[in-house]
């Protein structure tokens, strides 16, 4: 399972940020590890320097083996909250997707 973390020009993408979020993804999606080939995370600050509520965005795209990519988006006040919300959404989506496949 390959993990790639991307940030827009308004967010500093340093090694600590990447290692923290990669570790959280590995822990959170460990049970799907053998079914996923790649995960891409995109962080963005939609208003740049201006202050606004809910302006941090996290998009997580998961590419399961032999399936179309699954993408979720979450907006929040901080990157951590946006990431947590997106991680919860992707877990739910993956659980639903793989349960449907198992039924057939």
Describe this structure in words.
- This is HPF/RaiA family ribosome-associated protein.
- InterPro entries: RHF-like, RHF/RaiA.
- Helices cover 38% and strands 31% of the residues.
- By secondary structure, the chain is α+β, with helices and mostly antiparallel strands.
- Strands 1-2-3-4 form a four-stranded mixed beta sheet, with helices on one face.
- The longest helix is centred in the last third of the chain and has 25 residues, at 79-103.
- 16% of the residues are buried.
- The mean pLDDT is 90.
Point out poorly predicted stretches: none
Q: Could you say which overall geometry the principal axes of the C-alpha atoms support?
A: elongated
Instruction: Compute the separation of the termini in Å.
Output: 25 Å
Structural class: alpha+beta
Number of strands: 4
Q: How large is the radius of gyration?
A: 14 Å
Average pLDDT confidence is 90
* Strand arrangement in the largest pleated sheet: 1-2-3-4
* Beta-strand content estimate: 25-35%
* Biggest sheet architecture: 4 strands, mixed
Number of helices: 2
* Pattern of helices and strands: EHEEEH
Helix percentage: 25-40%
